[in-house]
User: Fold this.
Amino acid sequence: MSDYSAASRSAGPGAGAAEEASATGGVRLPSAAAAVQAAPVPVEGAGVRERRKALPGWAHGWIVPLLVLAAWELGSALGLVSESALPAPSRIAQAFWSLVASGELARHIGASFVRAGGGFLLGGATGLLLGLFTGLGKWVERTLDPTVQMLRTVPLLAVIPLFILWFGVGEFSKILLISLGAFFPVYFHTFLGVRSADRKLHEVTKALEFSALQQATKLILPSALPNVLLGIRLSVGVSWLLLAVAEMMGASSGIGYLIQDARVYSQTDIVFVGIGLFALVGKLSDSGVRLLEKRWLGWRSSYKG
Amino acid sequence: MLEIESLNKTFAAPSGPVVALRDIRLTVGRGEFVTFIGPSGCGKSTLLKIVAGLDTVYEGSVKLNGERIGGPGIDKGVIFQEPRLFPWLTVEKNVAANLSLRNPEVRKRVGELLELVRLQGFEKAYPRELSGGMAQRVAIARALLRNPDILLLDEPFGALDAFTRSHMQEVLLDIWQRSKTTMLFVTHDLDEAVFLGQRVVVMNPRPGHIRSVLDIDLPYPRSRTGASFQELRALVLGEFEKVEKGPAVDVGAGI
Ligand SMILES: Nc1ncnc2c1ncn2[C@@H]1O[C@H](COP(=O)(O)OP(=O)(O)OP(=O)(O)O)[C@@H](O)[C@H]1O
Ligand SMILES: [Mg+2]
Assistant:
Protein backbone atom coordinates (compact mmCIF):
# COMPACT_ATOMS: atom_id res chain seq x y z
CA MET A 1 0.00 0.00 0.00
CA SER A 2 2.59 2.53 1.06
CA ASP A 3 4.97 1.75 -1.79
CA TYR A 4 2.09 2.20 -4.19
CA SER A 5 1.13 5.64 -2.96
CA ALA A 6 4.77 6.69 -2.89
CA ALA A 7 5.21 5.55 -6.45
CA SER A 8 2.13 7.29 -7.72
CA ARG A 9 3.17 10.44 -5.92
CA SER A 10 6.52 10.39 -7.65
CA ALA A 11 4.66 9.96 -10.90
CA GLY A 12 3.41 13.50 -10.44
CA PRO A 13 -0.06 14.92 -9.97
CA GLY A 14 -0.73 14.70 -13.69
CA ALA A 15 -0.35 10.96 -13.75
CA GLY A 16 -2.44 10.44 -10.63
CA ALA A 17 -5.12 12.70 -12.00
CA ALA A 18 -5.23 10.93 -15.34
CA GLU A 19 -5.45 7.59 -13.62
CA GLU A 20 -8.27 8.61 -11.31
CA ALA A 21 -10.01 10.41 -14.13
CA SER A 22 -10.10 7.26 -16.20
CA ALA A 23 -11.24 5.35 -13.14
CA THR A 24 -14.24 7.62 -12.72
CA GLY A 25 -14.67 7.45 -16.46
CA GLY A 26 -16.02 10.96 -16.79
CA VAL A 27 -13.16 13.19 -17.74
CA ARG A 28 -11.58 13.68 -21.10
CA LEU A 29 -8.33 15.56 -21.26
CA PRO A 30 -8.19 16.85 -24.79
CA SER A 31 -5.54 18.63 -26.82
CA ALA A 32 -2.01 19.53 -25.89
CA ALA A 33 -2.75 19.90 -22.21
CA ALA A 34 -3.53 16.21 -22.00
CA ALA A 35 -0.25 15.31 -23.59
CA VAL A 36 1.63 17.57 -21.22
CA GLN A 37 -0.14 16.14 -18.19
CA ALA A 38 0.28 12.55 -19.22
CA ALA A 39 3.90 12.90 -20.19
CA PRO A 40 5.86 12.63 -16.91
CA VAL A 41 4.87 9.07 -15.98
CA PRO A 42 8.02 7.25 -14.98
CA VAL A 43 8.37 3.61 -15.96
CA GLU A 44 8.74 2.58 -12.33
CA GLY A 45 5.30 3.91 -11.38
CA ALA A 46 3.65 2.06 -14.23
CA GLY A 47 5.38 -1.17 -13.18
CA VAL A 48 3.95 -1.02 -9.67
CA ARG A 49 0.48 -0.45 -11.03
CA GLU A 50 0.75 -3.43 -13.35
CA ARG A 51 1.96 -5.73 -10.62
CA ARG A 52 -1.08 -4.75 -8.58
CA LYS A 53 -3.37 -5.52 -11.44
CA ALA A 54 -2.25 -9.16 -11.47
CA LEU A 55 -4.41 -9.57 -8.34
CA PRO A 56 -7.63 -7.60 -7.91
CA GLY A 57 -7.46 -5.14 -5.02
CA TRP A 58 -10.15 -6.81 -2.94
CA ALA A 59 -8.44 -10.21 -3.12
CA HIS A 60 -5.17 -8.84 -1.82
CA GLY A 61 -6.33 -8.60 1.78
CA TRP A 62 -7.45 -12.22 1.83
CA ILE A 63 -4.04 -13.74 1.24
CA VAL A 64 -2.94 -13.75 4.87
CA PRO A 65 -6.24 -14.96 6.41
CA LEU A 66 -6.49 -17.81 3.89
CA LEU A 67 -2.93 -18.94 4.56
CA VAL A 68 -3.56 -18.92 8.31
CA LEU A 69 -6.78 -20.91 7.87
CA ALA A 70 -5.03 -23.52 5.72
CA ALA A 71 -2.23 -23.97 8.25
CA TRP A 72 -4.76 -24.20 11.07
CA GLU A 73 -6.86 -26.86 9.33
CA LEU A 74 -3.74 -28.83 8.55
CA GLY A 75 -2.55 -28.54 12.16
CA SER A 76 -5.89 -29.83 13.42
CA ALA A 77 -5.95 -32.71 10.97
CA LEU A 78 -2.49 -33.75 12.11
CA GLY A 79 -3.58 -33.47 15.73
CA LEU A 80 -1.05 -30.74 16.49
CA VAL A 81 -3.60 -28.46 18.20
CA SER A 82 -6.05 -29.34 20.94
CA GLU A 83 -9.58 -29.74 19.63
CA SER A 84 -11.15 -28.08 22.68
CA ALA A 85 -8.92 -25.00 22.61
CA LEU A 86 -8.71 -24.55 18.88
CA PRO A 87 -11.33 -26.48 16.94
CA ALA A 88 -10.59 -27.00 13.26
CA PRO A 89 -11.98 -24.41 10.84
CA SER A 90 -14.16 -27.11 9.29
CA ARG A 91 -15.76 -27.79 12.69
CA ILE A 92 -16.35 -24.08 13.23
CA ALA A 93 -17.97 -23.97 9.80
CA GLN A 94 -20.21 -26.87 10.81
CA ALA A 95 -21.26 -25.08 13.98
CA PHE A 96 -21.91 -22.02 11.87
CA TRP A 97 -24.18 -23.90 9.45
CA SER A 98 -26.18 -25.54 12.17
CA LEU A 99 -26.75 -22.15 13.77
CA VAL A 100 -27.83 -20.78 10.42
CA ALA A 101 -30.15 -23.71 9.79
CA SER A 102 -31.86 -23.40 13.18
CA GLY A 103 -32.45 -19.69 12.63
CA GLU A 104 -30.57 -18.95 15.86
CA LEU A 105 -27.91 -16.99 14.08
CA ALA A 106 -30.32 -14.67 12.29
CA ARG A 107 -31.96 -13.88 15.60
CA HIS A 108 -28.66 -13.05 17.30
CA ILE A 109 -27.37 -10.99 14.42
CA GLY A 110 -30.66 -9.13 14.20
CA ALA A 111 -30.60 -8.28 17.91
CA SER A 112 -26.99 -7.12 17.75
CA PHE A 113 -27.66 -5.08 14.68
CA VAL A 114 -30.55 -3.21 16.26
CA ARG A 115 -28.43 -2.38 19.33
CA ALA A 116 -25.28 -1.37 17.49
CA GLY A 117 -27.20 0.42 14.75
CA GLY A 118 -29.50 2.22 17.18
CA GLY A 119 -26.64 3.27 19.43
CA PHE A 120 -24.50 4.36 16.53
CA LEU A 121 -27.26 6.38 14.91
CA LEU A 122 -28.23 8.05 18.16
CA GLY A 123 -24.69 8.87 19.22
CA GLY A 124 -23.45 9.66 15.73
CA ALA A 125 -26.33 12.02 14.94
CA THR A 126 -25.92 13.82 18.24
CA GLY A 127 -22.18 14.07 17.70
CA LEU A 128 -22.68 15.41 14.19
CA LEU A 129 -25.14 18.07 15.26
CA LEU A 130 -23.20 19.15 18.32
CA GLY A 131 -19.95 19.11 16.36
CA LEU A 132 -21.52 21.34 13.71
CA PHE A 133 -22.79 23.76 16.32
CA THR A 134 -19.55 24.03 18.25
CA GLY A 135 -17.64 24.22 14.98
CA LEU A 136 -19.78 27.01 13.60
CA GLY A 137 -19.94 29.21 16.66
CA LYS A 138 -17.15 30.42 18.90
CA TRP A 139 -19.66 31.09 21.63
CA VAL A 140 -21.11 27.57 21.52
CA GLU A 141 -17.60 26.17 21.50
CA ARG A 142 -16.64 28.07 24.64
CA THR A 143 -19.83 26.96 26.32
CA LEU A 144 -19.99 23.30 25.37
CA ASP A 145 -16.60 22.06 24.34
CA PRO A 146 -14.86 22.08 27.74
CA THR A 147 -17.63 19.93 29.21
CA VAL A 148 -17.53 17.47 26.34
CA GLN A 149 -13.76 17.26 26.52
CA MET A 150 -13.98 16.53 30.23
CA LEU A 151 -16.55 13.78 29.74
CA ARG A 152 -14.42 12.31 26.99
CA THR A 153 -11.63 11.50 29.41
CA VAL A 154 -13.89 9.28 31.55
CA PRO A 155 -13.32 5.61 30.62
CA LEU A 156 -16.64 4.48 29.19
CA LEU A 157 -16.53 1.08 30.84
CA ALA A 158 -16.48 2.82 34.20
CA VAL A 159 -19.99 4.19 33.70
CA ILE A 160 -21.51 0.77 32.96
CA PRO A 161 -22.38 0.12 36.64
CA LEU A 162 -24.12 3.47 36.78
CA PHE A 163 -26.16 2.67 33.69
CA ILE A 164 -27.16 -0.66 35.16
CA LEU A 165 -28.21 1.03 38.41
CA TRP A 166 -30.24 3.60 36.53
CA PHE A 167 -31.73 1.64 33.66
CA GLY A 168 -31.15 -2.01 34.53
CA VAL A 169 -29.56 -4.36 32.02
CA GLY A 170 -32.27 -3.89 29.39
CA GLU A 171 -32.01 -2.68 25.83
CA PHE A 172 -32.05 0.95 26.82
CA SER A 173 -28.84 0.93 28.82
CA LYS A 174 -27.10 -1.04 26.06
CA ILE A 175 -28.08 1.38 23.33
CA LEU A 176 -27.21 4.32 25.55
CA LEU A 177 -23.76 2.93 26.27
CA ILE A 178 -23.08 2.37 22.58
CA SER A 179 -24.38 5.79 21.60
CA LEU A 180 -22.19 7.44 24.21
CA GLY A 181 -19.15 5.74 22.73
CA ALA A 182 -20.21 6.51 19.17
CA PHE A 183 -20.78 10.17 20.03
CA PHE A 184 -17.23 11.30 20.74
CA PRO A 185 -15.37 10.42 17.53
CA VAL A 186 -18.08 11.96 15.34
CA TYR A 187 -18.35 15.04 17.54
CA PHE A 188 -14.64 15.63 17.67
CA HIS A 189 -13.95 15.14 13.98
CA THR A 190 -16.98 17.10 12.83
CA PHE A 191 -15.77 20.00 14.91
CA LEU A 192 -12.31 19.75 13.39
CA GLY A 193 -13.80 19.42 9.93
CA VAL A 194 -15.93 22.53 10.23
CA ARG A 195 -12.92 24.45 11.46
CA SER A 196 -10.85 23.24 8.54
CA ALA A 197 -12.98 25.22 6.07
CA ASP A 198 -10.69 27.55 4.16
CA ARG A 199 -10.89 31.23 5.11
CA LYS A 200 -9.97 32.19 1.57
CA LEU A 201 -12.81 30.13 0.12
CA HIS A 202 -15.07 31.76 2.67
CA GLU A 203 -14.09 35.12 1.18
CA VAL A 204 -15.05 33.76 -2.24
CA THR A 205 -18.49 32.73 -1.02
CA LYS A 206 -19.01 36.25 0.31
CA ALA A 207 -17.93 37.81 -2.97
CA LEU A 208 -20.30 35.48 -4.84
CA GLU A 209 -23.19 36.31 -2.49
CA PHE A 210 -23.78 32.85 -1.07
CA SER A 211 -26.70 32.78 1.37
CA ALA A 212 -26.04 31.52 4.89
CA LEU A 213 -27.61 28.21 3.95
CA GLN A 214 -25.50 27.94 0.81
CA GLN A 215 -22.40 28.67 2.85
CA ALA A 216 -23.27 25.82 5.17
CA THR A 217 -24.13 23.30 2.47
CA LYS A 218 -21.68 24.33 -0.24
CA LEU A 219 -18.64 25.32 1.78
CA ILE A 220 -18.71 24.12 5.39
CA LEU A 221 -20.16 20.67 4.83
CA PRO A 222 -17.94 19.65 1.89
CA SER A 223 -14.90 21.00 3.78
CA ALA A 224 -15.87 19.03 6.86
CA LEU A 225 -16.83 15.85 5.05
CA PRO A 226 -13.42 14.11 5.05
CA ASN A 227 -13.15 14.58 8.79
CA VAL A 228 -16.78 13.65 9.43
CA LEU A 229 -16.35 10.38 7.56
CA LEU A 230 -13.21 9.60 9.51
CA GLY A 231 -15.14 10.25 12.70
CA ILE A 232 -17.94 7.97 11.53
CA ARG A 233 -15.47 5.21 10.77
CA LEU A 234 -13.92 5.42 14.21
CA SER A 235 -17.37 5.60 15.71
CA VAL A 236 -18.52 2.44 13.93
CA GLY A 237 -15.54 0.63 15.41
CA VAL A 238 -16.33 1.86 18.90
CA SER A 239 -19.97 0.81 18.45
CA TRP A 240 -19.04 -2.81 17.77
CA LEU A 241 -16.62 -2.84 20.67
CA LEU A 242 -19.21 -1.58 23.09
CA LEU A 243 -21.82 -3.89 21.64
CA ALA A 244 -19.70 -6.87 22.63
CA VAL A 245 -19.22 -5.43 26.09
CA ALA A 246 -22.92 -4.64 26.51
CA GLU A 247 -24.09 -8.04 25.36
CA MET A 248 -21.69 -9.85 27.63
CA MET A 249 -22.82 -7.92 30.68
CA GLY A 250 -26.25 -9.46 30.41
CA ALA A 251 -28.50 -10.28 27.49
CA SER A 252 -30.53 -13.12 26.06
CA SER A 253 -29.68 -12.55 22.44
CA GLY A 254 -26.99 -11.06 20.27
CA ILE A 255 -23.60 -12.14 19.06
CA GLY A 256 -22.00 -11.16 22.38
CA TYR A 257 -24.54 -13.31 24.22
CA LEU A 258 -23.86 -16.18 21.81
CA ILE A 259 -20.18 -16.05 22.72
CA GLN A 260 -20.79 -15.71 26.43
CA ASP A 261 -23.32 -18.54 26.44
CA ALA A 262 -21.04 -20.87 24.47
CA ARG A 263 -18.20 -20.18 26.88
CA VAL A 264 -20.32 -21.39 29.79
CA TYR A 265 -20.85 -24.72 27.99
CA SER A 266 -17.29 -24.84 26.68
CA GLN A 267 -18.46 -24.79 23.07
CA THR A 268 -15.26 -23.33 21.70
CA ASP A 269 -16.40 -23.70 18.10
CA ILE A 270 -19.41 -21.45 18.70
CA VAL A 271 -17.19 -18.92 20.46
CA PHE A 272 -15.18 -18.83 17.28
CA VAL A 273 -18.31 -18.40 15.18
CA GLY A 274 -19.20 -15.35 17.30
CA ILE A 275 -15.74 -13.86 17.02
CA GLY A 276 -15.77 -14.47 13.29
CA LEU A 277 -19.12 -12.73 13.02
CA PHE A 278 -17.82 -9.68 14.85
CA ALA A 279 -14.85 -9.56 12.53
CA LEU A 280 -17.07 -9.90 9.47
CA VAL A 281 -19.70 -7.36 10.46
CA GLY A 282 -17.06 -4.90 11.64
CA LYS A 283 -15.19 -5.24 8.40
CA LEU A 284 -18.35 -4.87 6.32
CA SER A 285 -19.47 -1.70 8.05
CA ASP A 286 -15.99 -0.29 7.73
CA SER A 287 -15.99 -1.05 4.02
CA GLY A 288 -19.34 0.65 3.75
CA VAL A 289 -17.92 3.89 5.11
CA ARG A 290 -14.89 3.53 2.86
CA LEU A 291 -17.21 3.21 -0.09
CA LEU A 292 -18.82 6.49 0.88
CA GLU A 293 -15.38 8.05 1.15
CA LYS A 294 -14.51 6.86 -2.31
CA ARG A 295 -17.70 8.23 -3.76
CA TRP A 296 -17.73 11.55 -1.92
CA LEU A 297 -14.05 12.34 -1.56
CA GLY A 298 -12.83 11.44 -5.03
CA TRP A 299 -12.02 15.11 -5.60
CA ARG A 300 -9.20 15.12 -3.06
CA SER A 301 -5.82 15.19 -4.73
CA SER A 302 -4.28 13.41 -1.76
CA TYR A 303 -6.88 10.67 -1.71
CA LYS A 304 -5.37 7.35 -2.69
CA GLY A 305 -7.58 4.94 -0.77
CA MET B 1 -18.16 54.11 -13.12
CA LEU B 2 -15.93 53.87 -10.06
CA GLU B 3 -15.23 57.00 -8.02
CA ILE B 4 -12.70 56.96 -5.21
CA GLU B 5 -12.40 60.18 -3.22
CA SER B 6 -10.00 60.94 -0.35
CA LEU B 7 -9.76 57.30 0.60
CA ASN B 8 -7.73 56.63 3.73
CA LYS B 9 -7.18 53.25 5.33
CA THR B 10 -5.39 52.63 8.60
CA PHE B 11 -4.72 49.23 10.11
CA ALA B 12 -4.44 48.91 13.86
CA ALA B 13 -1.34 46.79 14.24
CA PRO B 14 0.13 45.77 17.63
CA SER B 15 3.12 47.99 16.92
CA GLY B 16 0.84 50.96 16.31
CA PRO B 17 -1.40 52.13 13.49
CA VAL B 18 -0.26 51.41 9.94
CA VAL B 19 -1.43 53.84 7.29
CA ALA B 20 -2.00 51.52 4.33
CA LEU B 21 -3.66 54.04 2.01
CA ARG B 22 -3.51 57.82 2.12
CA ASP B 23 -5.69 60.15 0.16
CA ILE B 24 -6.44 57.95 -2.81
CA ARG B 25 -8.36 59.78 -5.55
CA LEU B 26 -9.21 57.99 -8.72
CA THR B 27 -12.05 57.80 -11.21
CA VAL B 28 -12.38 54.85 -13.53
CA GLY B 29 -14.86 55.05 -16.39
CA ARG B 30 -17.12 52.23 -17.48
CA GLY B 31 -15.30 49.68 -19.61
CA GLU B 32 -11.88 51.09 -18.80
CA PHE B 33 -8.82 48.90 -18.21
CA VAL B 34 -6.64 50.30 -15.41
CA THR B 35 -3.53 48.59 -14.08
CA PHE B 36 -1.95 49.25 -10.69
CA ILE B 37 1.72 48.80 -10.09
CA GLY B 38 3.88 49.46 -7.08
CA PRO B 39 6.31 47.83 -4.70
CA SER B 40 5.20 45.32 -2.10
CA GLY B 41 3.26 46.83 0.77
CA CYS B 42 2.07 49.94 -1.06
CA GLY B 43 -1.56 49.00 -0.45
CA LYS B 44 -2.62 47.57 -3.80
CA SER B 45 -4.40 44.59 -2.29
CA THR B 46 -5.91 46.78 0.40
CA LEU B 47 -7.32 49.12 -2.23
CA LEU B 48 -8.75 46.24 -4.26
CA LYS B 49 -10.33 44.66 -1.20
CA ILE B 50 -12.06 47.91 -0.37
CA VAL B 51 -13.42 48.24 -3.90
CA ALA B 52 -14.50 44.58 -3.71
CA GLY B 53 -16.43 45.35 -0.54
CA LEU B 54 -14.47 42.72 1.37
CA ASP B 55 -13.10 45.48 3.61
CA THR B 56 -15.62 48.10 4.63
CA VAL B 57 -13.66 49.89 7.33
CA TYR B 58 -12.14 52.99 5.75
CA GLU B 59 -12.41 56.76 5.57
CA GLY B 60 -13.45 58.60 2.47
CA SER B 61 -15.82 57.66 -0.28
CA VAL B 62 -15.76 54.76 -2.70
CA LYS B 63 -18.69 54.66 -5.10
CA LEU B 64 -19.59 52.26 -7.85
CA ASN B 65 -22.15 53.67 -10.28
CA GLY B 66 -22.98 56.39 -7.80
CA GLU B 67 -23.57 54.07 -4.85
CA ARG B 68 -21.31 53.67 -1.87
CA ILE B 69 -19.78 50.20 -1.72
CA GLY B 70 -21.27 48.62 1.39
CA GLY B 71 -20.13 45.02 1.09
CA PRO B 72 -19.10 42.26 -1.27
CA GLY B 73 -21.40 41.33 -4.12
CA ILE B 74 -21.62 39.85 -7.55
CA ASP B 75 -21.55 43.27 -9.23
CA LYS B 76 -17.87 43.28 -8.28
CA GLY B 77 -16.03 40.25 -9.60
CA VAL B 78 -12.87 39.39 -7.68
CA ILE B 79 -9.97 37.32 -8.96
CA PHE B 80 -7.38 36.57 -6.30
CA GLN B 81 -3.76 35.69 -6.72
CA GLU B 82 -4.75 32.03 -6.25
CA PRO B 83 -7.69 30.64 -8.24
CA ARG B 84 -9.58 29.74 -5.05
CA LEU B 85 -11.73 27.08 -6.68
CA PHE B 86 -13.86 24.63 -4.70
CA PRO B 87 -11.76 21.46 -4.92
CA TRP B 88 -14.80 19.20 -4.63
CA LEU B 89 -16.59 20.71 -7.62
CA THR B 90 -15.97 20.13 -11.30
CA VAL B 91 -15.00 23.03 -13.53
CA GLU B 92 -18.55 23.74 -14.67
CA LYS B 93 -19.91 23.50 -11.14
CA ASN B 94 -17.17 25.80 -9.90
CA VAL B 95 -18.22 28.37 -12.46
CA ALA B 96 -21.87 27.97 -11.49
CA ALA B 97 -21.01 27.80 -7.74
CA ASN B 98 -24.25 28.73 -5.96
CA LEU B 99 -26.25 28.87 -9.19
CA SER B 100 -27.85 25.68 -10.44
CA LEU B 101 -26.68 24.12 -13.67
CA ARG B 102 -30.15 22.67 -14.00
CA ASN B 103 -31.26 26.13 -14.93
CA PRO B 104 -30.90 26.07 -18.75
CA GLU B 105 -30.02 29.76 -18.78
CA VAL B 106 -27.11 29.20 -16.37
CA ARG B 107 -25.96 26.10 -18.21
CA LYS B 108 -25.88 27.92 -21.51
CA ARG B 109 -23.92 30.86 -20.08
CA VAL B 110 -21.45 28.54 -18.34
CA GLY B 111 -20.83 26.81 -21.66
CA GLU B 112 -20.30 30.12 -23.43
CA LEU B 113 -17.93 31.39 -20.75
CA LEU B 114 -15.87 28.21 -20.73
CA GLU B 115 -15.52 28.71 -24.45
CA LEU B 116 -14.53 32.33 -23.90
CA VAL B 117 -11.73 31.31 -21.51
CA ARG B 118 -10.84 28.45 -23.86
CA LEU B 119 -11.67 25.61 -21.50
CA GLN B 120 -14.28 23.73 -23.49
CA GLY B 121 -13.79 19.99 -23.00
CA PHE B 122 -12.81 20.48 -19.35
CA GLU B 123 -16.32 20.95 -17.97
CA LYS B 124 -16.17 17.75 -15.93
CA ALA B 125 -12.55 18.06 -14.78
CA TYR B 126 -11.71 18.67 -11.13
CA PRO B 127 -9.45 21.56 -10.06
CA ARG B 128 -6.60 19.18 -9.20
CA GLU B 129 -6.48 18.18 -12.86
CA LEU B 130 -5.92 21.75 -14.02
CA SER B 131 -2.75 23.74 -14.47
CA GLY B 132 -2.44 27.06 -12.63
CA GLY B 133 -3.37 29.02 -15.73
CA MET B 134 -6.41 26.88 -16.45
CA ALA B 135 -7.60 27.16 -12.84
CA GLN B 136 -7.25 30.93 -12.98
CA ARG B 137 -9.33 30.99 -16.17
CA VAL B 138 -12.06 29.03 -14.34
CA ALA B 139 -12.00 31.70 -11.64
CA ILE B 140 -12.37 34.39 -14.30
CA ALA B 141 -15.31 32.56 -15.88
CA ARG B 142 -16.89 32.22 -12.44
CA ALA B 143 -16.73 35.97 -11.91
CA LEU B 144 -17.92 36.79 -15.44
CA LEU B 145 -21.00 34.55 -15.10
CA ARG B 146 -22.40 37.09 -12.62
CA ASN B 147 -22.08 39.89 -15.21
CA PRO B 148 -20.06 42.12 -12.89
CA ASP B 149 -19.86 45.84 -13.52
CA ILE B 150 -16.23 45.67 -12.62
CA LEU B 151 -13.60 42.94 -12.45
CA LEU B 152 -10.92 43.24 -9.76
CA LEU B 153 -7.80 41.21 -10.37
CA ASP B 154 -5.10 41.05 -7.68
CA GLU B 155 -1.89 39.77 -9.27
CA PRO B 156 -3.90 37.02 -10.97
CA PHE B 157 -1.01 35.79 -13.10
CA GLY B 158 1.74 36.29 -10.53
CA ALA B 159 2.23 32.59 -9.92
CA LEU B 160 2.38 31.63 -13.59
CA ASP B 161 5.43 31.07 -15.72
CA ALA B 162 6.31 33.76 -18.25
CA PHE B 163 4.91 31.88 -21.22
CA THR B 164 1.54 31.07 -19.62
CA ARG B 165 1.36 34.57 -18.24
CA SER B 166 1.70 36.25 -21.62
CA HIS B 167 -0.91 33.87 -23.00
CA MET B 168 -3.27 34.71 -20.13
CA GLN B 169 -2.75 38.42 -20.73
CA GLU B 170 -3.97 37.97 -24.27
CA VAL B 171 -6.92 35.87 -23.08
CA LEU B 172 -7.83 38.61 -20.61
CA LEU B 173 -7.65 41.36 -23.25
CA ASP B 174 -9.83 39.21 -25.46
CA ILE B 175 -12.37 38.82 -22.65
CA TRP B 176 -12.26 42.52 -21.91
CA GLN B 177 -12.80 43.53 -25.52
CA ARG B 178 -15.74 41.17 -25.84
CA SER B 179 -17.41 41.71 -22.46
CA LYS B 180 -16.53 45.40 -22.02
CA THR B 181 -16.21 44.89 -18.28
CA THR B 182 -14.31 47.53 -16.33
CA MET B 183 -10.97 46.07 -15.25
CA LEU B 184 -8.83 46.91 -12.22
CA PHE B 185 -5.67 44.89 -12.49
CA VAL B 186 -2.94 44.80 -9.84
CA THR B 187 0.50 43.59 -10.82
CA HIS B 188 4.16 43.57 -9.83
CA ASP B 189 5.21 43.32 -13.42
CA LEU B 190 6.02 46.50 -15.32
CA ASP B 191 5.59 44.92 -18.75
CA GLU B 192 2.26 43.47 -17.76
CA ALA B 193 1.03 46.84 -16.51
CA VAL B 194 1.98 48.61 -19.73
CA PHE B 195 0.82 45.78 -21.99
CA LEU B 196 -2.67 45.60 -20.50
CA GLY B 197 -3.71 48.98 -19.18
CA GLN B 198 -5.20 52.01 -20.85
CA ARG B 199 -3.91 53.74 -17.77
CA VAL B 200 -1.20 52.68 -15.34
CA VAL B 201 -1.54 53.81 -11.73
CA VAL B 202 1.87 53.93 -10.05
CA MET B 203 1.72 53.58 -6.29
CA ASN B 204 4.29 54.15 -3.58
CA PRO B 205 4.42 52.76 -0.06
CA ARG B 206 4.71 54.16 3.46
CA PRO B 207 2.05 55.33 3.40
CA GLY B 208 0.43 53.83 0.30
CA HIS B 209 -0.49 56.56 -2.13
CA ILE B 210 -0.82 57.16 -5.84
CA ARG B 211 2.38 58.59 -7.22
CA SER B 212 1.14 59.15 -10.76
CA VAL B 213 -1.34 57.97 -13.33
CA LEU B 214 0.04 57.46 -16.83
CA ASP B 215 -1.97 57.12 -20.02
CA ILE B 216 -0.88 54.28 -22.26
CA ASP B 217 -1.99 55.57 -25.59
CA LEU B 218 -1.29 52.48 -27.66
CA PRO B 219 -3.83 50.60 -29.76
CA TYR B 220 -4.57 46.93 -29.00
CA PRO B 221 -3.19 44.44 -29.79
CA ARG B 222 0.06 45.83 -28.52
CA SER B 223 3.52 44.72 -29.43
CA ARG B 224 5.91 44.34 -26.52
CA THR B 225 8.89 44.99 -28.71
CA GLY B 226 7.65 48.10 -30.49
CA ALA B 227 9.50 51.36 -29.98
CA SER B 228 6.50 53.20 -28.54
CA PHE B 229 5.86 50.36 -26.06
CA GLN B 230 9.44 50.53 -24.87
CA GLU B 231 9.20 54.28 -24.61
CA LEU B 232 6.13 54.14 -22.39
CA ARG B 233 7.66 51.37 -20.36
CA ALA B 234 10.68 53.54 -19.74
CA LEU B 235 8.37 56.37 -18.74
CA VAL B 236 6.61 54.24 -16.11
CA LEU B 237 9.92 52.90 -14.91
CA GLY B 238 11.12 56.48 -14.53
CA GLU B 239 8.23 57.16 -12.15
CA PHE B 240 9.63 54.54 -9.83
CA GLU B 241 13.19 55.56 -9.93
CA LYS B 242 12.34 59.04 -8.80
CA VAL B 243 11.47 57.73 -5.37
CA GLU B 244 11.66 54.02 -4.97
CA LYS B 245 14.42 51.63 -5.92
CA GLY B 246 12.92 48.60 -4.22
CA PRO B 247 13.56 45.20 -5.70
CA ALA B 248 9.89 44.33 -5.25
CA VAL B 249 8.88 45.58 -8.68
CA ASP B 250 9.89 43.25 -11.42
CA VAL B 251 11.48 45.45 -14.05
CA GLY B 252 13.11 42.57 -15.86
CA ALA B 253 12.82 42.32 -19.60
CA GLY B 254 9.94 39.86 -19.32
CA ILE B 255 9.26 38.17 -22.62
N1 LIG C 1 -4.83 42.84 7.99
C1 LIG C 1 -3.83 43.72 8.14
N2 LIG C 1 -3.47 44.14 9.36
C2 LIG C 1 -2.47 45.03 9.52
N3 LIG C 1 -1.77 45.57 8.50
C3 LIG C 1 -2.09 45.18 7.25
C4 LIG C 1 -3.12 44.23 7.00
N4 LIG C 1 -3.22 44.04 5.68
C5 LIG C 1 -2.28 44.84 5.12
N5 LIG C 1 -1.59 45.52 6.06
C6 LIG C 1 -0.53 46.50 5.82
O1 LIG C 1 -0.98 47.39 4.84
C7 LIG C 1 0.04 47.66 3.92
C8 LIG C 1 -0.42 47.40 2.52
O2 LIG C 1 -0.65 46.00 2.36
P1 LIG C 1 -1.14 45.39 1.00
O3 LIG C 1 -1.37 43.94 1.21
O4 LIG C 1 -2.28 46.18 0.50
O5 LIG C 1 0.11 45.62 0.06
P2 LIG C 1 0.31 45.21 -1.46
O6 LIG C 1 0.60 46.43 -2.21
O7 LIG C 1 -0.83 44.39 -1.93
O8 LIG C 1 1.61 44.33 -1.38
P3 LIG C 1 2.00 43.06 -2.24
O9 LIG C 1 2.44 43.60 -3.55
O10 LIG C 1 3.13 42.46 -1.50
O11 LIG C 1 0.81 42.18 -2.33
C9 LIG C 1 1.24 46.87 4.34
O12 LIG C 1 2.12 47.71 5.04
C10 LIG C 1 0.68 45.83 5.27
O13 LIG C 1 1.61 45.55 6.29
MG1 LIG D 1 -1.07 42.34 -2.51
Remarks:
- The pocket of magnesium ion (ligand 2) is lined by residues B 44-45, 154 (CB under 6 Å).
